[in-house]
Write a structure and sequence with these properties.
Chain A has 480 residues and is of the alpha+beta class. Chain A has helices at residues 2-9, 18-28, 45-64, 78-81, 85-91, 117-127, 172-192, 239-244, 268-277, 306-319, 333-342, 353-358, 379-404, 412-421, 434-444; strands at 32-34, 41-43, 68-69, 75-77, 96-101, 104-112, 136-145, 159-169, 198-202, 214-221, 227-237, 247-249, 255-257, 259-266, 294-298, 324-326, 347-351, 360-365, 371-375, 406-408, 425-430, 447-452, 472-477. Chain A has 15 helices and 23 strands. In chain A, the strands form 5 sheets. An 11-stranded mixed sheet of chain A has the order 3-7-8-14-11-10-9-22-23-21-20, sandwiched between helices.
């Protein structure tokens, strides 16, 4: 019992200190470890396996829309990074510079890619000649580097894993359509696979990506009421094409600039899963991305036949397509329960001598801890049903929590009251002036998270900050 | 016809200039493109898709042996790289150094990983305490950087994609067993999936990996008679463990050093596939890794019903699990044939109005160009059979070619005669002295590729170089 207590005690409660709870979970659930490289993390097997599941599902969704994968070099020559003015201003302060190859200084510095727009542009310039070469719908899975000062596991680190899609189109309309299409791919993935509800919308000019004409975003609400930008999709118009000279001959034999987009999602999504679904016992994983969906834990396993029967259940479930493991170690059942809960494994299957006699086992949901006794005859069907129910209930709960934390503010007094005393998103109208965004940021460290696509509800006619006429609805919030 | 001719003319013939043929194929089959980053290549969709298939199959085989995936930082602090003497001497001359983060110089230089032994050691030092923590069987998929002077697509580039497995074990025996086990995983993969026969063996002291006690290798023979090292597996003994202080408490409560291995395969495998199977019409891909296994090409597609029927065949094959595409573009059939051949797509399916009338289509093998007329009723079964036959025949042909290019030499006169006038491996006994390896390298630029596992045939009793007593059989060869 002493040992079991220790495992549980090691987690700070969410209410007490959310940031510490988060740090405890990523470590105790064995998702990451810190490394000797400041600001970089090690993804351990359980952490990386979640990323593999995210990758597989996102990649499938990308390919369904015609996207192809490629791989570009990880280095960008300084002169190439400098080609698009806004872009270099946004990224140069936080890139890592390679200056030597072996003992020799390089003729030109190379930065480790913080993102690869410039490399794709350089490539597109060479491979796009005619309208027949369009569209180009390329994506790559890789790691990128941004020399951040403050880092947090998954949320912000100097190196992180991501995918970056880069497309080139004949027309502005096609580029805009693709930008929005990929945002919806992201949003649907978050809701259907990660069970995380998101607000879909557009960034303000102040918050958009360096070099973009328009940035679209999905914003999720964490358990502590802070927003997490979970995926972005950018329309570059022909800005990069003009800077890099990417032109094609159209059907009328005229030279035209291409229109481009880019879109990315990162390992930060794992942080979102933790902060949306986790609880004081640790991680709670949605079944669709859980590396292990069910853990069979034998009770009184020293008794004859128990381990064998437990192994049989595992084999049956595995054959039925469930990602299942058996914990046959010599730890106590209580210790195993704690570990399974810490790791967020959606379903626990308990089986002891009495269960065997009765031809049954006990299924325990990780999310609600609800227990169900099921006949062994129905094992596969019941476990699959339960996984489905957990996935759906987790989304419903996250959505109810999110919706309960969206507050409307009609003027600055209400905004102040809300931002100081409530957690979550604040919906307020905005006049469109950056001065109001700056004021809100300065007063409360809150930012315009997005202008939602679904902005039919004009909740007021005036700006929540300055009181002048306003027609844009904005979700405001404090963000990670 | 002018256009078709152009596509074919663009390839140099293998006999004329093998190196130029290779370069032509990688470009014309659209596997890679050169980038603005000297020595780094761009993997285009067809090149990357082959890598994805290699990854999926290798990863499956790794996981079957209990291996788990992780992700380590891409940077190594200089002090960490310096911890194992032989290792740093081997790699320091060819690493890329990061010296600045943004505008600020770093306190300590970081190299971009050329390989990650030092990072894994640093990690293992923290996570291994007891015999219960062993073995650790970790692998990562990533890119690594080695600042090579001469580069060639896939074979040698400054950045390349690979996997690197790193394991830690309680005993020397276990480590040795894992080292050899992974070499066999590599060899079986090459033979079964890439249809490339390999020689399995051990490297000499001179040729082994920097810091290893023993390096095992698989060596493949390219069409031009040169050897390509295609995968290596290293046993480090406890050398790294002593340098990094990786100790565990054994069952008797005594402190012991762990024993470690590492093993890697890279995108160089794609180079091997090209150089073993390709011909003067371009790439020839083994069906098991071909991104597209069959291409449906309609004949007289402007005639009524042809395109519809071709699309139907594509759908049927796709539903049957064949990776199939339809080329419905407005190019001529001849042009499409050339493209399909250049890209190495294993099976072409021709369908024209006459075929439709007869309820048939024509299957054309890429490897032999053999044509078979098949009834549309049997389409799925026949295509699958053909893919299987192509895979097997490609291996058999490569093996026959390889075996025909293994020559025995019993003394230096025979060795000289063979190395000057024949292509391929030369089998010769070796006394074990590096002086003989050095002499052979100096005289003929040939190296000891490996000492085969299967060395029962002592083809002589004396060293092929110095004539002194010898018991080790060596495969000598010129290598990429």
């Amino acid at each position: 019992m002493a040992k079991e207590k220790k495992l549980v005690e090691a987690i700070t409660s969410m209410e007490e200190d959310f940031a510490q709870w988060y740090t405890d979970v990523v470590k105790k659930a064995e998702l990451i470890d810190y490394s000797s490289v400041k600001g970089c993390m090690i993804l351990k097997p359980d952490g990386y396996a979640i990323w593999e599941n995210i990758q597989a599902e996102l990649d499938r969704r990308f390919k369904e829309t015609g996207v192809e994968n490629v791989y570009m070099p990880m280095f960008i020559p300084e002169s190439l990074l400098n080609k698009e003015k806004d872009h270099v201003e946004g990224f140069a302060p936080e890139v890592a510079w390679v200056t030597h190859g072996g003992a020799n200084p390089l003729q030109e510095r190379l930065c480790v890619r913080p993102t690869s727009e410039t490399l794709f542009c350089d490539f597109y310039k060479n491979v796009i000649q005619s309208y027949r070469d369009l569209p180009k719908l390329y994506n790559q899975w890789c790691s990128v580097v941004r020399w951040e000062k403050e880092t947090r596991p998954f949320l912000r680190s100097r190196e992180f894993l991501w995918q970056e899609g880069h497309t080139a189109h004949a027309t502005a309309e096609e580029a805009e359509e693709r930008t929005v299409q990929m945002l919806h791919v992201y949003a649907d993935f978050c809701e259907e696979t990660l069970a995380i509800p998101v607000v879909r919308g557009r960034k303000t000019e102040k918050e958009k990506f360096a070099g973009a004409e328009a940035t679209y975003t999905i914003e999720a609400l964490m358990h502590d009421g802070k927003a997490l930008q979970s995926g972005t999709s950018h329309n570059f118009g022909d800005g990069f094409a003009r800077a890099f000279g990417i032109q094609y001959t159209d059907k009328d034999n005229k030279l035209q600039y291409v229109h481009q987009t880019s879109w990315g999602m990162t390992t930060r999504l794992i942080g979102a899963v933790i902060m949306v679904h986790g609880d004081d016992s640790g991680l709670v994983l949605p079944p669709r991305i859980a590396p292990v969906q069910a853990m069979v834990i034998p009770i009184q396993q020293y008794k004859e036949g128990v381990l064998e029967k437990a192994a049989e259940l595992k084999e049956r479930l595995s054959a039925a397509g469930v990602r299942v493991k058996l914990d046959a170690s010599d730890k106590s059942p209580g210790w195993k329960f704690s570990e399974q809960e810490m790791r967020g494994i959606p379903v626990r299957i308990e089986l002891g001598p009495k269960d065997m006699e009765a031809g049954q086992c006990v299924l325990v949901r990780r999310d609600t801890r609800e227990k169900t006794v099921v006949s062994l005859d129905e094992l596969e069907a019941k476990v699959k049903e339960l996984l489905e129910a957990i996935q759906n209930d987790m989304f419903a709960r996250a959505k109810a929590h999110r919706d309960a934390h969206i507050h409307d503010a009609h003027n600055y007094e209400e905004f102040t009251e809300t931002v100081l005393h409530k957690q979550g998103f604040i919906r307020g109208m905005w006049c469109g002036e950056q001065a109001c965004e700056d004021k809100i940021k300065e007063d409360f460290a809150a930012t315009a998270r997005c202008m939602p696509f679904d902005d039919r509800q004009e909740i007021a006619q005036v700006c929540v900050c300055c009181g002048r006429p306003a027609h844009k609805l904005v979700y405001w919030g404090k963000a990670y």
